[in-house]
Design goal:
Distance between the termini: 70 Å
Number of helices: 10
Number of strands: 0
Largest sheet: none
Strand content: under 5%
Order of helices and strands: HHHHHHHHHH
Shape: elongated
């Protein structure tokens, strides 16, 4: 164990690991338990191994939490950016039959393509295209189940020029053909 850590423990000071990362109370407690191990022989080895693993897990959790806070600070969007991304999402959802070009979508919400792609993924966790496809497939499922439409009618409503392209996209998304939905809802 580094001397500065041991010295910090003996003096009951907070040991600074980086600018904002200090040893927590739990980490200090485990280090004190390691330093003042009451066991001898093989029991000491087991005790130290267990405490070392516990120390490592707690430290990595603390480090992870600290890094996540930094990532959130670095990647945080202001309210206006978030509103833009929600407006972009609404535009996509309202135009499922006609895919909107990224450049047109970016212009419509008042940003550029690069920022649109980056910020959309930050807000929704998927790319613009992936979101559009998910929304389109969910709408297809609803049309097939609730509206009693044929596969070709659902494909046409969603702007697919080919039933086969629609079927391929549907199968890729859900794992089964759209025609199987029609069969599965029959009594």
């Amino acid at each position: 164990m580094p001397l500065n850590v041991i010295q910090s423990i003996k003096e009951d000071n907070d040991f600074c690991l980086s600018n904002d990362l200090k040893l927590s109370f739990e980490l200090n407690t485990i280090i004190n338990q390691i330093v003042s191990c009451p066991y001898k022989g093989s029991m000491k080895s087991f005790f130290l191994e267990g405490k070392s693993i516990e120390l490592l897990i707690l430290f990595l959790n603390q480090l992870s939490d600290s890094l996540n806070v930094e990532l959130i600070k670095e990647n945080s969007l202001d309210l206006q950016d978030i509103r833009r991304m929600h407006r972009a999402k609404d535009i996509l959802i309202n135009n499922l039959a006609k895919p909107t070009k990224i450049s047109d979508l970016a212009a419509e919400v008042g940003t550029n393509e690069c920022y649109l792609k980056k910020q959309f993924k930050q807000v929704f966790g998927v790319s613009v295209f992936a979101y559009f496809q998910q929304a389109r497939m969910e709408k297809a499922r609803i049309l097939l189940l609730n509206k009693a439409l044929s596969v070709s009618e659902a494909a046409r409503i969603l702007g697919y020029s080919s039933i086969s392209y629609f079927s391929i996209a549907f199968r890729k998304h859900f794992g089964y053909n759209p025609s199987q939905m029609k069969i599965s809802r029959l009594p």
